[in-house]
Amino acid sequence: MKRSKFSKSIKIILAILLIGLAYSVFQYHSNHEKNVITEQILNETNIISGYNIVEAEDNIEFDSEYLKSFSLIDKPSVYVQLLFSNFKELVNYKSRNKFKNLNNKNQKTTFYYSVSEPILSSNSDLALIKITEHCEMLCGESSVYIFEKVNGKWKIKKKILIWIS
Q1: To 10 degrees, what angle do helices 75-90 and 2-26 make?
Q2: I need a labelling partner for 124 at 20 to 30 A (CA). Which of 3, 6, 7, 102 fits?
Q3: How many angstroms separate the CA atoms of 98 and 69, rounded?
Q4: Residue 57 burial by CB count (10 A; 0-12/13-18/19+): exposed, middle or buried?
Q5: pLDDT profile of the chain (165 residues), mean per 10
Q6: pTM of the model
Q7: Which residue, 73, 53, 158, 63, is CA-closest to 116?
Q8: Which superkingdom (predicted)?
Q9: CB contact at 8 A, 121 and 70
């Protein structure tokens, strides 16, 4: 009897994941589109202006707090995008994010930022991005930002601090 209940719950979880996966594929955003949106956000919000972005972070750790900003329709897609992000980290996948080349000086720097691939809503008016500030010794911070496009401009809707040193 326990086995059938366990099987039913696994089937339900798999069905939910498949629905989220199908929805995510349906609302797929290309890497080029993600790079353009990320560039717009960084330029319009001036969060990290004047510093080097020398690497891309590939995953955003899941937290249910992130889903609160997205509509019910977007939640399955956002959840699956977060799962993919963590899966990429698990298999050590490195995206070809163009921000990797923004360190124009081609020298080692002790202060730089890394930026994640954005998690986007279906209509690309909400974006979830992790930005980590790296500096020498015991210095730095990592936050997940939720950006919202208002009147054609990106604004910070919420900042969630992950760690600080």
Answers
A1: 100
A2: 102
A3: 27
A4: buried
A5: 66 77 65 84 80 68 84 82 74 56 52 85 90 82 93 94 89
A6: 0.72
A7: 53
A8: Bacteria
A9: yes
